[in-house]
Design goal:
53% helix; 13 helices; mainly alpha; 247 residues
Length: 247
């Protein structure tokens, strides 16, 4: 069963319509750093320093005609439906950005490759486009190069994008000055007899400290040396209050 919310009903209906067409259209969007799925068109946001870390996903648009227009697909033709698989394939090929390389297994990650190899329609599509020429399209490795084009076409999504990135950068700034590895290091060096108090007790303390003061603002304006001293002192006091004995 595939679960979706009431708000995602229309976009889900469009994405799952006409066999595997939604999946094929999704491949056209991948090189832009976008994802076409049951939520509409979204943008996974990743840490530039760690591409594997997806910290959020912004909805770019739920307007299906506009989503199709971005890659040069005719929504009116889609609305009339398709009689054969070849009709579906021709619709995908009509995109301004159609490129056989976007669908090749060797250009997918292991998860996508394993999933699509099991799809009979996808394999039929690969056979259909096997002898098609490679268009003169230069795809940028850095997907941020496409942001001006994306937000020029979908300006309503820019604010959500900036809000999510701003939240991420603030959180990253805080993590650089206060995180589990740092706290363990401080305790190990400044209060070594307490360094083996770990596991759930350590996690409870981290949450306790975050609930103290105006945490985010305090971390941002306080030099690390003072954060270190307060954290270690608070940690020892917290253990004594809870009567947790060091090893």
């Amino acid at each position: 069963l595939i679960h979706y919310s009431a708000e995602e009903y229309n976009t889900s209906l469009s994405y799952f319509a006409y066999n595997d067409l939604g999946n094929l259209i999704g491949k056209l969007y991948h090189k832009f750093g976008l994802k076409y799925g049951h939520r509409g068109l979204t943008m996974p946001l990743r840490d530039k320093g760690n591409a594997c870390h997806k910290f959020s996903e912004v909805v770019i648009s739920t307007n299906i005609p506009k989503i199709f227009a971005f890659i040069g697909l005719d929504y009116a033709k889609w609305s009339k439906g398709f009689d054969t698989l070849d009709d579906i394939f021709e619709f995908v090929i009509s995109s301004t950005y159609f490129d056989p390389r976007l669908f090749a297994y060797e250009n997918m990650n292991a998860t996508a490759r394993g999933r699509d190899k099991k799809r009979s329609t996808y394999n039929a599509f690969l056979e259909y486009i096997e002898s098609m020429p490679i268009p003169d399209i230069k795809w940028e490795e850095d997907k941020t190069e496409y942001l001006p084009e994306i937000f020029s076409f979908f300006p309503e999504a820019y604010q959500s994008y900036m809000e999510e990135y701003t939240k991420f950068l603030k959180a990253k700034e805080i993590r650089a000055k206060f995180n589990g590895d740092l706290v363990r290091q401080w305790i190990s060096e400044d209060a070594p007899k307490y360094e083996k108090v770990q596991g759930k007790d350590f996690g409870d303390f981290m949450q306790h400290f975050k609930n103290t003061y105006d945490f985010e603002e305090w971390i941002k304006r306080t030099p690390e040396i003072f954060i270190r001293g307060r954290v270690v002192a608070e940690y020892i006091l917290w253990l004594r209050t809870r009567k947790i004995k060091p090893s």
